[in-house]
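User:
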Amino acid sequence: MYSMSQVDTMIDNWTRIGMSKAEIIVMAAEACLGWPYVFGARGEACTPKNRDRRRNAAYPTIVSKCQVLSGKRPSCAGCEWGEGARIYDCRGFTYWLLLIVGITLKGAGATSQWNEESNWARKGPIAEMPRDRVCCLFKKKGNTMSHTGMYVLNGRIIHCSGTVKTGKITDSGWTHYGLPAGLYGDEPMPETKPTLCRGDRGEWVKTMQGDLIAKGYDLGAWGADGTFGKQTEKAMKAFQKDNGLTVDGICGKKTWAALEGETPQETRYTVTISGMTAEQAALLSQQYPNAVKIEERG
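Assistant: Predicted structure:
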């Protein structure tokens, strides 16, 4: 586990060498794994004084996890974190990650952060999330957002619950995403269709299902209901098999292109054959008009 000073130094170095804001957020989130949860905290140092400021009867671990406040020891010596970590709650963690790259999320809690439109370049249900962008994720319960974390690409989430920990986008409960305003600067957001897999829900799933039905694939009694379930996955695999695609049940770029009647860009390769005679090279050049003949002298 890294110390607070080590992480601060790494952030300074990442900034100095010109890493992007999104890259710094991902790296910083990884470096904070294992750091403690304290309700109301937004990245201050883990000290008895700072924990005491956050005392809350609903969160007794603020005291019980501190050997000084709980009376177990007179100092932080020997503590799992000592004074070398930062403390967060869930929305404090995402707030801090964005703050280190110069972005301030408005709102005191996950719900108010979500409701503040100026925080987001784009937001919506998780099924519509751009999987190639670092985003804040939310769990909606009733009319509130009960939890938040950071999507760090490749299907992974890092969030603060008990400690800073890692999880998967497929873990239960994640319902919405918010792409922070300013994270990608003026870079245009690609209007690409999201990669969809079993468990996803939303309008993009309904569009995909409609395409499958239009091409004659049976989705059962549910039809285009916006839920990527077992029957949709079965139909997707059948479609992929019939169209020479990888049969994985995942609707990615090539599968979308086939569904919509587009011709995917053909993958092309360059082959170098050394040690050929002039006659052999000439013959290949005749057979392959795009071949480039390079004369070598030994």
